[in-house]
Amino acid sequence: MLRTLTPRALRRLAALLLLAAAALHGTPAAAADGGEPGWTAEPASGDTATARRPSFYLAGPAGTVLEDRLALTNTGDRQRVVTLRGADAYNTPGGAFAVRPAAASRGAGSWISFGSAATVTLPPHTRALVPFTVTVPPASPPGDHPAAVVAAEGGHEAGVRVDLRVGGPALAALTVEDVSVRGHGAATTVAYTLVNRGNVALTPALALHAACGLGGACGGPRSGHALPVELLPGQRVALTEPWPGAPALDRVSLRLTATAPGAAPATATATAWFLPPGSAAWAGAGLVALGGAALLLVRARRRGPAGEPSREPVRPRAPAPRSEPELTGASR
Q1: SS (H, E, C) 47-108
Q2: Which of 94-98, 144-148, 208-212, 304-308 comes out lowest in average pLDDT?
Q3: Residue 39 has pLDDT above 60, yes or no
Q4: Which domains does the chain have, with CATH numbers?
Q5: Distance CA 103, CA 114 (A)
Q6: How many CB atoms are closer than 10 A to CB 21?
Q7: CA atoms within 13 A on the CB side of 270
Q8: How far apart are CA 58 and CA 51, in angstroms?
Q9: Statement: residue 19 has pLDDT above 90
Q10: pTM metric for this prediction
């Protein structure tokens, strides 16, 4: 049965479709009043119209000043006033790319400056190219320093990613931690944590192997596939893998191996018991019953027939030695 969408629902659906299209084309869009896009922010293109960039990429040694330009486009019928700033980038716990607030940006985001162009007034249907600089401190460590350019107007924000690499030795290092199995049946998942311990961003892949203790097919989770996450330096993400074919009754040994270009493989293991729902409670009740039976048996051995206390024979005690008086003096 078809449902008629309200005007508000139609506006929300249109906004979601436009935002999805902008994301597919690498253009972070900011929503305007009423949920409709009113302006866009993206890296300025090159000399040709086809030289479109999904993000900024800047590289240089410590102590250098790098330059680029941000393109702002007002697609609406009214004037827009957009403010610009730099921000540190990080991974959310689930692995998404996110930016920090202005007050919390003390890394590469604080190196970005728009100077006097931090506030831009955009007339209707106009496009502005806004220059900015990235001043890399002399003591900056080598490697990737993820950041973003954030444009804000009317309570809405759009972030454009800045991939900044400081010259020097690059170290790719990855570890797997906190492996566990959650749920049961078709809802079983393998949970784990990936940690980037190097100084460059990583695009990891994961391989899983499951070995059943009782033999036979384990129906292990999918293995050997790239993960939909880019792990930034110093970040950790908690991920899960579905395991719809997990065994109902078995002891399974898991081995997880994570790889990334330039990094040594990282491996972690875990052991999980699979029991039918309620079997753990029955097993616990059985142990309690066995313990109670053993206690009753011990008590029965300590009692005689008909439940009377057993009587042990009384052994006669040896008479105490008689003490003789001590004789003193001379003999007669």
Answers
A1: CCCCCCCCCEEEEECCCCEEEEEEEEEECCCCCEEEEEEEEEEEECCCCCEEECCHHHCCCH
A2: 304-308
A3: yes
A4: 7-166 (2.60.40.10), 174-274 (2.60.40.10)
A5: 17
A6: 12
A7: 17
A8: 16
A9: no
A10: 0.70
